[in-house]
């Protein structure tokens, strides 16, 4: 096996492993990367292009008598074409999608919710948050370390370790003090 065949095989296998890891751990990786957004240079496009380059290059090297330069150039054109097609047929339309049923925990900051289970001053309660996908319940703790009774409207200030840190909604909090 020649050096170029090995490079093509590494691109192909690396892309397949990346696809498998993304399939299994995609949400965790997205949460770790946070709000990093590169419209054209998205990792899925780069990896799909390299995977196609590797697959086409490996097959052409094995099945044809073409020169190494011709195989590389054709493989690069196919890989780049696949990445460009994926961008315009998949990524760009998905960016313009108005609604999605999925969400990330980091998107909960700033949302209004309602306390479902009283939040003690030192502990966890439960907050109901309405999202596009429906109503979700999340563990919550008081940001000011004050007890928040069930039924109180709250604002999610921060999300850490899958716990919402909330504070009473200002309008409701002021009404309760009158």
UniProtKB/TrEMBL annotation:
Pfam families: NfeD_TM (PF25842)
Listed transmembrane segments: 6-26, 38-60, 66-90
Alphabetized UniProt keyword annotations: Hydrolase, Membrane, Protease, Transmembrane, Transmembrane helix
Source superkingdom: Bacteria
Keyword RNA-binding annotated: no
UniProt-recorded name of the protein: Serine protease
InterPro entries in UniProt: NA-bd_OB-fold, NfeD2_TM
Domain Membrane protein NfeD2 N-terminal transmembrane positions: 3-98
GO biological process: proteolysis
GO terms for MF: peptidase activity
Keyword Nucleotide-binding belongs to the record: no
């Amino acid at each position: 096996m020649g050096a170029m065949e090995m490079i093509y095989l590494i691109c192909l296998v690396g892309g397949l492993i990346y696809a498998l890891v993304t399939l299994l751990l995609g949400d965790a990786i997205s949460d770790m990367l946070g709000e990093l957004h590169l419209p054209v240079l998205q990792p899925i496009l780069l990896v799909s292009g390299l995977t196609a380059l590797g697959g086409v290059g490996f097959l052409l090297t094995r099945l044809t008598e073409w020169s190494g330069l011709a195989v590389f150039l054709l493989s690069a054109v196919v890989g780049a074409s696949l990445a460009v097609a994926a961008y315009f047929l998949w990524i760009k339309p998905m960016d313009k999608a108005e609604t999605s049923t999925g969400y990330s925990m980091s998107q909960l900051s700033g949302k209004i919710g309602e306390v479902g289970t009283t939040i003690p001053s030192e502990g966890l309660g439960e907050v109901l948050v309405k999202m596009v996908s429906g109503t979700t319940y999340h563990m919550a703790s008081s940001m000011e370390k004050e007890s928040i009774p069930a039924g109180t409207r709250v604002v999610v200030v921060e999300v850490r370790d899958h716990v919402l840190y909330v504070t009473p909604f200002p309008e409701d909090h002021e009404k309760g003090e009158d």
